[in-house]
Write a structure and sequence with these properties.
Blueprint: H1 2-37, H2 53-60, H3 65-94, H4 98-113, H5 116-129, H6 136-161, H7 164-172, H8 177-188, H9 190-205, H10 209-214, H11 222-231, H12 239-268
Length: about 270
C-alpha cells in the first residue's frame, strides 16, 4: 500500500509539473507582451516606468490604423462567409451516406493538416494562373478557404447528436425543406455554429503565412505590416504590443461569455 501511494504521488507530481510547464510555455510570451505594452521604454526591453500611452497611441495615431482596419475587415468578412458556407457544407455532408460522408470529411481535413506555407504558396500560384491581382479579395478568398474546414469540424459533432427524426417531424408539421433547416436544424446546432465562427475569426485575425503569400505588396494586415517594418529596419512602435493585448483580452472575454451562456442553457434544460 505504501509503495502504491508513493507511486500515485510521484505520478501526480509529474503530471502537475508538466501542466505547469505547459501553461508557462503558453502564457509567458503573453505576459511579456503585456509588460512591454505598459512599459514607457521605446528601446529594447529595459523597464522605464508604467504607462498607458501606447494604448492611447493605438487609437490616436495613423501608424497602425490601416493595418488594423484591414485585419478586422478581413477577419469579420471571412468569418461570416466561412460560417455560412461551412454550415451549409456540414449539413450537406451529414446528409450523405456513411461511406461518402467519411470521404468528404477526409477532403475537408486536408487544409487543416496541410502546412500553412504549402497552402499559401498553392493559393498564390492559383491566383497567378487566374491572373488575379493580389490584394484584398485574394486575401479574403484565402481566409475563407482555410476557415471553412474548422467551421465544418465544429458543427459536425452537433449534427451527429441531432435526432434525424426532428427534421422529418418538422416537415410533417408543415415546414418546407428550407424552413425546416432554419426552424429545426440550425437552432439545434447553434452552439456548434458559434464555436465554428469563433474558430474562423481566431484563425483569420492572427494569420501571417497565408496572408503574406496572397496579399501582394500594397495590402497589409497587422502581422504582415509588423514583418515588413522589422525586416526593413524601420522604427517599431510599442503600440503593437497594446494591440495584441487588446485582441487577446477580447478573445478571452468572448470565450468566457459563450461558455457561461452555454452552461446556463444546459442547466436550465
Amino acid at each position: 500500500m505504501m509503495k502504491l501511494s508513493l507511486k500515485r504521488k510521484i505520478i501526480r507530481i509529474i503530471g502537475l509539473s508538466f501542466t505547469v510547464l505547459s501553461f508557462l510555455m503558453i502564457f509567458t510570451p503573453i505576459l511579456v507582451i503585456l509588460v512591454l505594452s505598459i512599459n514607457a521604454s521605446t528601446k529594447g526591453y529595459s523597464w522605464e516606468g508604467f504607462t498607458l500611452k501606447w494604448y492611447l497611441e493605438l487609437f490616436q495615431k495613423d501608424v497602425m490604423r490601416e493595418p488594423i482596419m484591414n485585419t478586422l475587415v478581413i477577419a469579420f468578412a471571412s468569418t461570416i462567409i466561412a460560417t455560412v458556407l461551412g454550415t451549409m457544407f456540414a449539413i450537406g455532408i451529414n446528409a450523405l451516406e456513411k461511406k461518402k460522408r467519411i470521404q468528404m470529411m477526409v477532403i475537408n481535413n486536408v487544409p487543416v493538416v496541410n502546412p500553412d506555407i504549402v497552402t499559401g504558396i498553392s493559393l498564390m500560384i492559383v491566383f497567378s494562373l487566374l491572373s488575379f491581382t493580389l490584394g484584398y479579395y485574394t486575401v479574403l478568398i484565402a481566409h475563407v478557404f482555410f476557415s471553412i474546414p474548422y467551421v465544418v469540424l465544429s458543427i459536425m459533432p452537433r449534427l451527429k447528436k441531432l435526432d434525424p427524426n426532428l427534421y422529418e417531424a418538422g416537415l410533417d408539421l408543415g415546414c418546407s425543406r428550407i424552413s425546416g433547416v432554419f426552424r429545426v436544424i440550425l437552432p439545434n446546432i447553434s452552439t456548434g455554429i458559434i464555436s465554428g465562427a469563433l474558430m474562423a475569426f481566431t484563425m483569420s485575425i492572427d494569420d501571417f503565412i497565408i496572408t503574406y503569400f496572397t496579399s501582394g505588396a500594397e495590402y497589409m494586415n497587422v502581422s504582415t505590416w509588423l514583418y515588413a517594418t522589422l525586416s526593413r529596419g524601420r522604427s517599431f512602435t510599442p503600440a503593437a504590443y497594446a494591440y495584441n493585448i487588446i485582441i487577446f483580452a477580447i478573445t478571452i472575454a468572448i470565450i468566457l461569455f459563450v461558455n457561461l451562456k452555454r452552461d446556463r442553457k444546459e442547466k436550465t434544460v
